[in-house]
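Database export, one record per block. Field names are fixed; values are copied verbatim from the stored entry.
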Amino acid sequence: MSENITTLDIKGKISTLLKDSIEQSEIENLINEIHTYFKELTQLTGFDNHIEHLAAITTSKGKALGLNHAAQCLLDYKRTVKFLKAMVMAIKEKQQNHPNETIRIFYAGCGPYAPFITLIAPLFSPEEIQFSLLEINDKSLEYAKNLIKKLELTNYVTNYYTADAVTFKIPEPEKYHILFSETLDALLYRECYVPILFNLLPQLPKDTAVIPENVLIKMSLSVNPITDSKHITEEIDTIIDVREAISLNTVNTIIPTQLPDKKVAVKSLNIEQYNYLLLDTLVHVYGDIWLTRNESSLTIPLEMGIEHPFHFNSIIYTYQMDPDIELKYSLEK
């Protein structure tokens, strides 16, 4: 790899990544090549030990990834490919629904590589798509601007904003067709996907496409651990449905401190016959595209052993967004 690579080369690599028939080994090779190229252009490896690159950024609710972790997200291979496919799908759908319009994308939390412009833009013309980028980390946004400039993609960007997506008021929100905010972690821990949607979605047109479209957290029970070849999961209930929770929020201008509690009556499930409780994060990326268990760092399940005898009737789950963003549980007799 060298800096002689062109936008046309990136377009070719992305076109290959978008094919359904591509092998996982080829996906990894192509993304590794892109990552190496971005490292050369930005001089940001994603693996150095500079404190300013390692530190997470505190937002008004939750935290944003530091530079290094944000850069490394590109190497979450299935996640990257599925988000690329989702973005292309959404753009093409919006082009059909809004012929002769420039499709405008609000990209919240772009990170230093801004991969969902730097890898998507070469597939379209600037007349077809335009991006507005928002990033809370000013250093991260500077890296993104520099990379976009070196890739000769500056004419695809209408606006750059350094701000907190949890509190940001979008100028001219009615002009946007797509909201992209891949600001989440497994179990919706710490990162700001939920409060960002609570803030931004009410500002945007009702038909705005959202990527990722939704996140679900599901509870299951099993007799054997995940590592056991005999492991069978019995799904019990959905603990969190983010888009449902947002739709039920009647006070659009206020982000709640927590979502409504979810109570699961487990005694009636004969919980004594199970040894493990699992929480799965399922990411509905867009349309029929999903990230499921262990396909990504976003969907690594949490497995907890159940102590017997189990003397409780219910488990109560609480997803709080203040003072910290995390999913908690309590047991009720």
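Remark 1: Residues 47-56 have pLDDT under 50 and may be disordered.
Remark 2: The radius of gyration is 21 Å.
End of record.
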